[in-house]
């Protein structure tokens, strides 16, 4: 029971972070389950099962607060679902010993991306550019959905920053639209894991704990979209994800103790440097930092 309570709090924290960054729930939750020795397919299946509930509540909450562009949702959700189904079925077919380093590798890269992305700041919206079109959204959804299922997370870390970089949509609309479309991705990924028999390895109390925590936090997260210190949060979470999955990869490679120490020393220096850079920028530009969530949350 204490372990399930901890998982529920992880679900709450992950959903709050996801609501502030437009990404993070799957990456954080899957990293935790891999750390608890769940095999990659079962871990990703568990997270996506929980996400059916959390994304439904999250999407409804974002809709209530006016954070959704339904044209974007309609164009990105279907290819996202197709990619998620393919990725889930493929992951289910890979032996667990081979899949774990692969999944942790994807999560590590996504964590590193968070570190770099939120250390650098964010580009403003360009009002002269038209809204994103299908030729841009369809391949984006397909790639993000595939990575999301195979890595246990990736929908937000791929879809949200890419839409931000296009400068074509208000960031709060990006967060809401990506969150709403993720409902279809979660359902499709779960179906793919079902066809691949990965559902058999799911620990249902863990799913319930993640679901309860995420559902509790989803409405709060939608409200907090403009209020969380997104750059600091993004760098902090990115460092945690990188460290957690680096440990898994080094273990799979049977790295020696010196390699462990050197690797984590380098990661620690990079993380502290990124946090220092963000904190210094915030201190030097308090006015900009105060408005930053409205510009950067995605």
Order of helices and strands: HHHHHHHHHHHH
* Euclidean distance between termini CA atoms: 34 Å
Indicate the mean pLDDT.
82
Radius of gyration: 18 Å
For the biggest sheet, the summary is: none
Uncertain residue ranges: 286-298
**Beta-strand content bin:** under 5%
Number of strands: 0
Give the tally of structural domains. Answer: 1
Structural class: mainly alpha
Task: Compute the number of helices.
Answer: 12
Shape: globular
Q: Share of helix among residues?
A: over 70%
GO cellular component, one term: plasma membrane
Protein name: Probable membrane transporter protein
Pfam family, one: TauE
Organism: Stackebrandtia nassauensis (strain DSM 44728 / CIP 108903 / NRRL B-16338 / NBRC 102104 / LLR-40K-21)
Key words describing this protein structure:
single chain, 298 residues, mainly alpha, 81% helix, globular, disordered C terminus, membrane, TSUP/Inactive_protease-like, Probable membrane transporter protein
SSE topology sketch:
Elements: H1 2-21, H2 25-35, H3 40-64, H4 70-92, H5 96-120, H6 134-151, H7 155-166, H8 171-195, H9 204-223, H10 230-252, H11 257-284, H12 286-296
Subcellular location: Cell membrane; Membrane
Protein name: Probable membrane transporter protein
Family: Belongs to the 4-toluene sulfonate uptake permease (TSUP) (TC 2.A.102) family.
Q: Can you offer a commentary on this structure?
A:
- The protein is 81% helix and 0% strand.
- It is mostly helical and 298 residues long.
- The protein has twelve helices and no strands.
């Amino acid at each position: 029971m204490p372990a399930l309570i901890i998982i529920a709090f992880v679900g709450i924290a992950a959903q709050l972070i996801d609501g502030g960054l437009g990404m993070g729930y799957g990456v954080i939750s899957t990293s935790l389950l891999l750390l608890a020795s769940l095999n990659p397919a079962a871990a990703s299946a568990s997270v996506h099962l929980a996400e059916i509930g959390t994304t439904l509540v999250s999407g409804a909450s974002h809709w209530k607060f006016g954070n959704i562009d339904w044209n974007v949702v309609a164009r990105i959700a279907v290819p996202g679902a197709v990619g998620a189904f393919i990725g889930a079925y493929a992951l289910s077919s890979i032996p667990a010993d081979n899949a774990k380093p692969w999944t942790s590798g994807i999560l590590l890269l996504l964590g590193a991306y968070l570190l770099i992305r939120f250390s650098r700041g964010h580009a403003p919206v360009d009002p002269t550019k038209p809204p994103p079109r299908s030729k841009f959204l369809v391949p984006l959804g397909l790639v993000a959905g595939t990575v999301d299922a195979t890595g246990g997370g990736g929908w937000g870390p791929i879809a949200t920053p890419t839409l931000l970089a296009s400068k074509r949509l208000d960031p709060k609309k990006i967060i809401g639209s990506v969150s709403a479309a993720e409902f279809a991705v979660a359902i499709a990924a779960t179906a793919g894991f079902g066809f691949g028999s990965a559902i058999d390895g799911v620990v249902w109390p863990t799913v319930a704990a993640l679901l309860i925590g995420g559902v509790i936090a989803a409405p709060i997260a939608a409200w907090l979209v403009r209020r969380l210190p997104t750059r600091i949060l993004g760098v902090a979470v990115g460092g945690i994800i990188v460290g957690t999955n680096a440990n898994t990869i080094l273990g799979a490679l049977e790295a020696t103790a010196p390699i462990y120490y050197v690797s984590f020393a380098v990661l620690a220096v990079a993380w502290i440097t990124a946090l220092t850079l963000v904190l210094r920028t915030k201190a030097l530009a308090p006015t900009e930092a105060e408005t930053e969530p409205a510009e950067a949350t995605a």
